[in-house]
Description:
The relative contact order of chain A is 0.12. In chain A, helix 1 (9-19) packs antiparallel against helix 3 (54-66) and helix 9 crosses helix 11. The first copy, chain A, has 17 helices and 19 strands. By secondary structure, chain A is α+β, with helices and mostly antiparallel strands. Chain A folds into four domains: 9-94, Uridine Diphospho-n-acetylenolpyruvylglucosamine Reductase, domain 2; 101-217, 2-Layer Sandwich (Uridine Diphospho-n-acetylenolpyruvylglucosamine Reductase, domain 3); 221-328, Alpha-Beta Plaits, CATH 3.30.70; 334-410, Alpha-Beta Plaits (2-Layer Sandwich). In chain A, strand 5 (101-105) and strand 6 (110-113) form a beta hairpin. In chain A, the strands form four sheets. In chain A, strands 12, 13, 14, 15, 16, 17, 18 and 19 form an eight-stranded antiparallel beta sheet that branches.
Amino acid sequence: MKTISRLPQELIAALAARFNDRFSISPGICEHHGTDESSLSPAPPDGVVFAQSTEEVSAAVTLCHTYRVPVIAYGTGTSLEGHLHAVKGGVCIDLSGMNQVLAVRPEDLDASVQPGVTRKALNAALHGSGLFFPIDPGADASIGGMAATRASGTNAVRYGTMRESVLAMTVVLADGRIIKTGSRAKKSAAGYDLTRLFVGAEGTLGIITELTVRLHPLPEAITCAVCAFPTIAAAVDSVIQTIQLGVPVARIELLDTLSVTAINRYSKTTLREAPTLFFELHGSPAGVAEQTRVVQDIAAEHGGMDFAWADRPEERSRLWQARHDAYYACLGLQPGARSLTTDVCVPISRLAECIAASLDDLAQTGLTAPLLGHVGDGNFHMLLLVNPGDPAAMGQAQAYAQRLAERAIAMDGTCTGEHGIGLGKRKYMVMEHGAAALTAMRAIKQALDPHNLMNPGKILPD
Amino acid sequence: MKTISRLPQELIAALAARFNDRFSISPGICEHHGTDESSLSPAPPDGVVFAQSTEEVSAAVTLCHTYRVPVIAYGTGTSLEGHLHAVKGGVCIDLSGMNQVLAVRPEDLDASVQPGVTRKALNAALHGSGLFFPIDPGADASIGGMAATRASGTNAVRYGTMRESVLAMTVVLADGRIIKTGSRAKKSAAGYDLTRLFVGAEGTLGIITELTVRLHPLPEAITCAVCAFPTIAAAVDSVIQTIQLGVPVARIELLDTLSVTAINRYSKTTLREAPTLFFELHGSPAGVAEQTRVVQDIAAEHGGMDFAWADRPEERSRLWQARHDAYYACLGLQPGARSLTTDVCVPISRLAECIAASLDDLAQTGLTAPLLGHVGDGNFHMLLLVNPGDPAAMGQAQAYAQRLAERAIAMDGTCTGEHGIGLGKRKYMVMEHGAAALTAMRAIKQALDPHNLMNPGKILPD
């Protein structure tokens, strides 16, 4: 079969000359690189470069810039908002081969990595160092992709998000120039914060080719707990009180009854099918014991039941594996369904109200949507289960997701706590930020990428 | 006396019409607004507007934009790098009258304030709430100014800097448009991080007119300690080990022998005149007791002497007041002297080496320069005491400061941990960031302020 590509022949020739068999226009490879874990239809790029160094990324970007061809970075393909969909065609730069941990510096509690290193790979490399990298979005995503989408996850309530975790980066700009966005100093007041500008920019301002990230000492003691509550409100109120008292919980996760049911089926657990909190506490043995008492008292005040502690590593792993598998467990509730995943985040004072209104709204629609949340941060997901062959249900789910996003924004929250804007949430950008702030974002995009070549069609509405 | 101003007469008329007696071109008022706490000569603006609302700031900026006249924001005048010097003339907007705490939300651990609220005023307003605002640069600076310079101080090792503390801001852009840079959600992945872009931009991209900042629960227990060491290296090694073990110290400050001598004289303390660490520990009573044991053991291993604890609030206040007065205490070492204050920050693994090399270098010069440091972050200041009437000494001090900045940058650190670039450190921007990153910063400045009206002459080298 003859392969047809929309790329200019000269660019194809130049990329083939530079990268040999690490450049491909094979439809299978392109298709694979135009698909993520969202429910969006694939949008394959026209070619894929498998890069192995910053200089190679710069060379590929420079060539694409010469021919005014879009460039999209690819890590593990685990994004949830169509971040890697080549909606304007172009060349995908696959960074998964840039998977070296370049340095671990225990004295400075930091590590430098290539962008294709996944969070689990980094933690494996840290084995024996007494340190760990806490950011945990569930998927074993690449650290470059996590930075690009400002990812977070279950540990963010204690350890922050990628915004707080990245100290400095190497970035290839739209015209191929290579910049460093900071030093390894823990703090700096030296000029514009380029690091934070590229974190969360979803590859629309440049491609991250190296990162220095903060590490944390492994806690001396870790304990987990599961506690069921009579109502979601009781669970959320326990969370609010825990945070307000300054208990440094490492994780505090909410699951609604439906999610617990799904997990019991999928992971063969025997949790009580009720609104449930999963906790994890980190610290010294005495500190964890003290946190435990406080958390248990708060839960008891709010009708918490079946408080079960898991101190042994294998029990903890089993619990968190079940939590991380919740996405797949929930998909199993409705065979053949895909999930339209929402990601709102609100001030914690509005969380109970936001969840209650969203569950009321859900009851009106007849849709199935288990709820999971990183509730210490005010962030929760509803997984709207929809059969791809049912356009009416898909329309209903999209309308529901829009009402949910609008509700969160009206509560001074955000339409996305951790997944990013990508394609699908661009329509909320004006509502969330206002027209003037969006104009400022467009001015920055135009300044750094005047030909709109870096992951075009993402973040900013057309 | 007739008042002469370089401002266009039409602008003077328009500002006078809009602001009445809250607009002034009086030389005395202009002179006051062109002076900060640095050793730089004053550079007064040509007029001062005393603004009382975001709309008024927008109105003043719009008028200045129309006449292409520079605009400089003023808070408390406590900057250390000439941030408010009107080096290109223009209108100063004094925000000290915008001093209202707009909301305190204990459930969300946040507060919204006008930019002229000082850190002490915010903490006074929080009295009784069980919360506090931890960022503490020493001076009772305005929170708007602290955000603009990405300030931090003694508590940053535990609570972060203004980078981590600001959730969202209202900003007036160069053409007078008003934007919001974020929501009150604790985390968001919705587009470019405008909040972090304006934090640390030193008023060169816009003027901050409202801020929502994070608060923290007041710790149940607080304890302080002072410990003398045989050498600076022993003190620094104690700090490194404390940080590496994950002890969540709230403050850990280094003073060299000369600083201690200065403090003893100025604050009538009786500290041993040796390299000294000041600690503060926050937590539950049991947690603080546990931290205390660890810190004490580490100090003992490194030859720490005269370990003295201060648990009572008045003892603690006395200790920290002495620390905060160290700047004035050090000036007292050399009557008539001003301080050329340095502010480098390096990875903590390089801290002992950086300090040792800097003290060696100092010994060669014959200059007097006490050393004070937020050493948990790798940040330290040397106060180069110079008589303003001694140009030879000033030249020597400037050359020393340059070698110190270059040394820190070579160690993958920064020329400024918390004071900002302002006027004097622009010359290090290329060395620290590289030409390509600086070009990206210039592109952002050009995009948001095409006529270079917002605090021109700061951050970016001419």
